[in-house]
Amino acid sequence: MGRSLKKGPFVDVPLLEKVEAMNRAGGDKKVIKTWSRRSTVVPEMVGHTLAVHNGKKFIPVYVTENMVGHKLGEFAPTRVFKGHTTKVAEKAAGVAGAPGAPAAGGSAPAGAKPAGAGS
Questions:
Q1: How far apart are the first and last CA of the chain?
Q2: What is the pTM of this model?
Q3: Please, which residues bridge with residue 115 across strands?
């Protein structure tokens, strides 16, 4: 559920103060480190680079107009997707060398005539 409109967007006060101080300073553009993944991106942040902590390291996030209204945590993923390639490779290798599978050039059952032999 979203936040009430009368309350406005949530932004940690220290983070908002740092952004506003940089806006007042003018051309000073430093990277602001923050652990506040829950803070909402507000228009004052546009054009700044925020280093958002993902639990292990800080991910630099350059804030654009399209990000306004979203949370900072959305732009710093906490999990690394490695893919499913290992299971697919194991499955392909397992099918090719499966026990009990008929091998190419196998022998005919006992008592059967070879193909092409006359009677």
A1: 83
A2: 0.67
A3: none
